[in-house]
Amino acid sequence: MEELGAVIFLKGGHVPRSFSEGGGQVSKRIGILTGGGDCPGLNAVIRGVVKSAVGRGWKVVGIEDGFDGFLHPEKCRCLGLEEVRGILPLGGTILGTSNRGNPFAFPMVREGKVELVDVSDEVCSRIKHLGLTALVVVGGDGSLKIAQELMRRGVPIVGVPKTIDNDLLETDVTFGYNTALETATEALDKLHSTAESHHRVMVLEVMGRYAGWIALESGIAGGADVILVPEIPYDIEKVSQAILERGRRGRRFSVVVVAEGAFPKGGGRVVKEAAGGKSVVERLGGVGEAFSRELGGVLEMDIRVTVLGHLQRGGSPSTFDRCIGSRFGVKAVELIESEAFGHMVCLKGRHITSVPIEDAIRSLNLIDPGGEMVRHAEALGIMLGR
Ligand code: F6P
Fold this sequence. Notes:
Blueprint: H1 6-10, E1 29-34, H2 42-55, E2 59-63, E3 76-78, H3 81-84, E4 106-110, E5 113-117, H4 120-129, E6 134-139, H5 141-152, E7 157-161, H6 177-198, E8 201-206, H7 213-221, E9 226-228, H8 236-248, E10 254-259, E11 271-273, E12 283-284, H9 287-298, E13 303-307, H10 319-337, E14 343-348, E15 351-356, H11 357-360, H12 372-379
Parallel strand pairs: 1-2, 1-6, 6-7, 7-14, 8-10, 8-13, 9-10
Antiparallel strand pairs: 2-3, 4-5, 11-12, 14-15
């Protein structure tokens, strides 16, 4: 591994502001971190950033475990071509990640109690100390909100939109989403045969937090009969009628995809863990079981539930995510070169471009219940719970 001069400064020594200091040759040193939940394609982005930065003669410092890494000197390491060799098809992130390391509300144990402490000053001074010209934040809504706050504190940042949920605005797609869709669609294909053989209702619970994209698109691709998404509160009676109607047409089975954030009309989301305890954000999960109990109350059929869970986040990225992730990485370096700080790379049509981070995080990218994709799903005969 290439020696990082900064390792000395990490232990309190001198930090060159840039590689030009003392040498004469102007170069940049940029940092990269991956924050929030992991997602297929993270390594493709890291590799893309490193390859294109090294190609310009720049140095890259990898910060491990999200923003948390800034608080631990040993978690900042040099990333060269050798470190990113062979990582393109790997799931997860070679840098590690965390969704508990918000520097503006960092959980610390004080006198036996967990308190949320603002450690952003420490993070900013570490970034300065590391001599970083810019920081690439690869993250979803939460990490990019932190990035935006750090920008306001003077840290030059560019963002890369990551999440299987596809819930970020201003990009046609986030990387990782496509792989999650593939996983969910494959699960639906497998559930179909067993549903048909046993004349059962098979319910597949998928992730997505407050957005129903994974459920809707995998449901269309996997030929689901019912798709329930958070954007359309479902009517259990209507769902049951649709399944019975299928029975009358000789279809004695049904496949239902339910997004973890879906909820019945007049009801609430199923929350596994409220925010504030061990978890910084609300953890969803369990709607599959809740829905199946409700359905079992109004329908005389065998019902089984499969929770796809973190399988959607793991594994090798799809071709699409490898390609888009790599290109996002290259574009992030181009943004740094042109000093377009505060911007996030994004896909618009077939082009990789950029938008201000604040536009991407102003709200969530949710399904439009009156939109084209919902209309097309319904035209295919899929029941959306209404
Ligand atoms: O945001 C990605 C995601 O996988 C969501 O779809 C899901 O609700 C959440 O993260 C799960 O988080 P964790 O891994 O912390 O349980």
